[in-house]
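Q&A FORM
Asked by: J.P.
Topic: structure of Alpha/beta fold hydrolase

PROVIDED:
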Amino acid sequence: MSELLNYKLEGEGHTIVLIHGLFGNLDNLGVLARDLKADHQVLSVDLRNHGISFHSDEHNYQLMADDVVRLLAHLQISDFTLVGHSMGGKVAIKVAETLKQQVRKLIVLDMAPVHYTTRRHDNVISGLVAVSEQNPSSRSQALDILAQHIEIDGVRQFLSKSLYKQDDIMQWRFNVKSIVENYESILGWEAIEPIDTPTLFVKGADSDYLLPEHQADVQKQMSQSKAHIIANTGHWLHAEKPKEVLRVIRNFIA
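REPLIED BY: S.T.
REPLY: Here is the structure written out as C-alpha cells.
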C-alpha cells in the first residue's frame, strides 16, 4: 500500500480540494480554506516531498496527481472542485484528467499547462542548499543564510515556514534533494487528453506565468475554460489579494 499524503479536512458541504505550489505546504492556501470551510468541506493536502507528507526520489505530475487521487479514494470523496496554485495547478489539471467524471469544476491559480523553459528558482535552490549544508541552529541564522541568495524578504519568510528544528539544527520539511533533481520535470508538462470540465484560470496581472501565447495550449487541453485577471498582483495572488481571489472562486463555483 502506497503512503497517503498528509492532509487537513475541515467544514461540511461540497468538497473543495486545495493544492499548494512548489516549496509550499497545506497552510499556504489557508487564507482560502478559512473562508471556504464556512459552507464547504475543504481538503488541504501536503504534496509529496512537501510539508509533512512522505519523501520520494520521484517527483512528477503524474505521480503527484496519483497521490491526490489515492487520498480522495481513501476519504471516499467522489464529487469535488479542484483549486491549485502554480505547481499545484498543474497537479490539479492532471487529477481532472484522471477523474473526469468526479470533478465538478477546476480552478488554476496563475499557472499554464505548458512546459516552461525559464528556471525561476535557481536563487531559491541555492539558498535552500546553503542552509542544508551550513546547519544553522536558529531560524534567524537560517534567514541570514537565505538572504545571501534571495533578495526578497517575503520569499525568505515564506520559505522559513518550512523550517523545523531537529537535533539542534534547522532543517527543511521539503525534500530539497528530490526537488533539485526533479526540477526539470516540475518545469515540464505533457499535454493532457482534452477534458470538458468547466475550468477557470486566475491570473495575477503582474505575473508572467500565464500569458496570451499560452491560450492555444489551454484551449486544446481544456475546452470549457475561461480566464480572470486580478489587477495589481503577482504570482502569489491569493496571498496578496485574498478577498478578490475568493470572490472570483466563489462566483465560479456558485
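FOLLOW-UP: The chain has two domains: 7-114+189-253, 122-181.
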